[in-house]
Specification:
The complex is a heterodimer.
Chain A: E1 4-7, H1 8-18, E2 23-26, H2 34-42, E3 49-52, H3 56-68, E4 73-77, H4 79-84, H5 86-94, E5 99-105, H6 121-125, E6 137-138, H7 143-160, E7 163-169, H8 170-174, E8 176-179, H9 215-236, E9 239-242, E10 249-252, H10 256-270, E11 275-280, E12 282-284, E13 300-305, H11 311-319, E14 325-329, H12 338-349
Parallel strand pairs in A: 2-3, 2-4, 4-5, 5-7, 6-7, 10-11, 10-13, 13-14
Antiparallel strand pairs in A: 1-8, 6-12, 9-11
Helix pairs in contact in A: 1-2, 1-7, 3-5, 10-12
Chain B: E1 4-12, H1 17-30, E2 34-39, E3 49-57, E4 69-74, H2 77-83, E5 87-96, E6 110-114, H3 116-123, H4 129-141, H5 146-151, H6 153-157, H7 165-177
Parallel strand pairs in B: 1-4, 4-5, 5-6
Antiparallel strand pairs in B: 1-3, 2-3
The chains are: A alpha/beta, B alpha/beta.
């Protein structure tokens, strides 16, 4: 397999196309513009569709339409743009349609800045729009993993009829690493017999709708979604554990920040401190199982984030009061440094200043 | 010893600073190393300072952000001011002395001053100053040969730039000559 040096954003586009995505609707925003740029160039020759919509809201509703017609479809944006898409995402989740949404996070709130951040954890994992819904959220830590998770995201979306989010940050979008494009892993997918592709006069029309006025109709529909989420929690949760056996402190970090923690692990080692890492790969479902077995030696969990503290709430739920949960974060576009993480670990262990 | 080279290339937009990093990353990848290239992006890039962090390693790469560089390559003066402190003790700073008249203040790093703009002009184009610098860099560090570096040229710039290959070969060779 040929190794390519590729930007994360381009790799997202290439992986989506390799996974069979032929339709893309978006609106420009830094730091993810290479995704629509790539799709604009590559999709038309494949007979696909690229539309630069008039707004993010228009783009997500075009995704809604294409998904309803059974197409493999994607949109991408960055934090404030993803906020604008939330209404559409809620409708898509309610209508049980498959699509992939990429968020290369920038610093917020508001328009914020364009430098990397992880401050959309809440928006991504709590169902950012209205109502009782969730969607699988994948947080790649390298460009290679981005490629594999984008491909997987399309399969998962079709398998469960759900929107799926790829949650990266400005660094994942902008950096280049070597990548290989494996053949996408195919699942045994159900037929899209719900798609609105014309009846040919042979059947009743398929109707895609998120409006259910009657409580006794809506409640069972929500229950159906909840049942589906339970299956996703059971079967689709992904995580990685590094160096956790007998660790003094276990850091919890996702995406690029997990790599900052890896540097901190080495630095801690030099000082005789054992730092472990739990890296959630799916943020929803959150990998609670990874926190079940903890060594009696472990003094605390330390959530390290490029935000003011969001995932730390899930870490607290996972810890369930067994050991303290600490937090270290940088935000506003600044990135935590390995030395800062080491200082925090020492502080927790009582040896720091 | 296992290779783990962390470099910051910095200069102003248009000096080919991001391309220097891409050339090194591509050459490293073709030699079977793990590589990462992380650019500054956004308004910084438009006429202001541009920089990129490159890591070439035998190991899996941790943080792609370089905060303690083994080597700093600076093409203009604001970049030296900004990144001088980001080099680890015992590291290397390579200064484009054509455009930077000040000396490095630190005494715990090894410093090289190369007038790469003048040398590039002698090679045929001042625009190749980045390639002169890269030639000096690879010769100094020794983990990538000049030939391997040039092997990345068409990969990074595309076949359409094939006509510029001889100039760039000359520039890389002239840069390597600076290191004796």
């Amino acid at each position: 397999m040929e190794k390519l040096l590729m930007k994360g954003n381009e790799a997202v586009g290439a992986a989506a196309i390799k996974a069979g995505c032929r339709h893309f609707f978006g609106y420009p925003i830094t730091p993810q513009n290479e995704i629509p740029e790539y799709m604009a160039k590559e999709l038309p020759p494949l007979g696909g569709t690229f539309v630069q919509a008039e707004s993010e809201i228009a783009a997500i509703n075009m995704v809604y339409g294409a998904a309803g017609a059974g197409a493999r479809v994607m949109t991408s944006s960055s934090s404030p743009g993803i906020a604008l898409k939330q209404e559409g995402i809620s409708y898509i989740a309610a209508s049980e349609l498959p699509c992939v949404i990429v968020n290369m996070m920038r610093s917020s709130p508001g328009l914020g800045g364009i430098q990397p951040a992880q401050a959309d954890y809440f928006m991504a994992t709590r169902g950012g729009g209205n109502g009782d819904y969730y969607m699988p959220v994948y947080a790649p830590a390298s460009i290679q993993e981005t490629v594999e998770l984008v491909m997987e995201a399309f399969e998962v979306a079709d398998f469960y009829c759900t929107p799926v989010m790829i949650l990266g940050d400005g660094m994942i979008g902008q950096m280049m690493e070597s990548v290989e494009f494996p053949e996408p892993k195919k699942r045994n997918l159900p037929a899209k017999d719900w798609a609105t592709v014309g009846t040919g006069g042979k059947r009743k029309p398929n109707i895609i709708n998120s409006l259910r006025i009657e409580p006794d109709v809506l409640e069972p529909h929500i229950q159906k979604l909840l049942d589906k989420y339970e299956v996703i929690k059971k079967d689709e949760t992904l995580y990685e554990k590094v160096n956790c056996e007998d660790a003094d402190v276990i850091a919890v970090a996702y995406g690029t920040i997990s790599r900052v923690v890896r540097n901190a692990i080495k630095k801690c080692e030099e000082e005789g401190i054992k730092l472990g890492l739990i890296r959630p790969i799916t943020l929803w479902p959150f990998p609670f199982a990874a926190f079940e077995e903890i060594s009696p030696n472990t003094k605390a969990f330390l959530s390290v984030e490029m935000s003011a503290g969001q995932m730390v709430d899930d870490v607290k739920i996972a810890a369930n009061g067994r050991i303290p949960v600490e937090f270290y974060g940088r935000y506003g576009g600044n990135v935590p440094k390995p030395d800062e993480v080491v200082a925090k670990v020492k502080d927790i262990l009582g040896g720091g200043k | 010893m296992a290779l783990n080279e962390e470099v910051i290339f910095a200069g102003f937009g248009g000096q080919g600073v991001l391309s220097m990093g891409k050339m090194l990353s591509y050459a490293g990848m073709m030699k079977g190393k793990n590589v990462s290239w992380l650019p500054s992006y956004g308004p910084e890039m438009r006429g202001g300072t541009a920089n990129c962090s490159v890591i070439v390693s035998d190991d899996l790469i941790g943080s792609p952000v370089v905060t303690e560089a083994d080597t700093l390559v600076v093409m203009n003066r604001p970049s030296l001011d900004k990144f001088e402190k980001s080099v680890k003790p015992g590291g290397i700073i390579i200064v484009n002395s054509s455009l930077i008249d000040q000396k490095v203040k630190r005494d715990d790093v090894t410093v090289y001053y190369f007038p790469v703009n003048e040398i590039a002009t002698e090679c045929g184009s001042a625009k190749a100053a980045n390639m002169v610098m890269l030639g000096a860099y690879v010769k100094l560090k020794g983990f990538i040969s000049e030939a391997d570096l040039l092997g990345a040229f068409l990969k990074v710039f595309g076949e359409g730039k094939k006509n510029l290959l001889p100039l760039n070969e000359k520039a890389v060779a002239a840069g390597a000559e600076l290191v004796k």
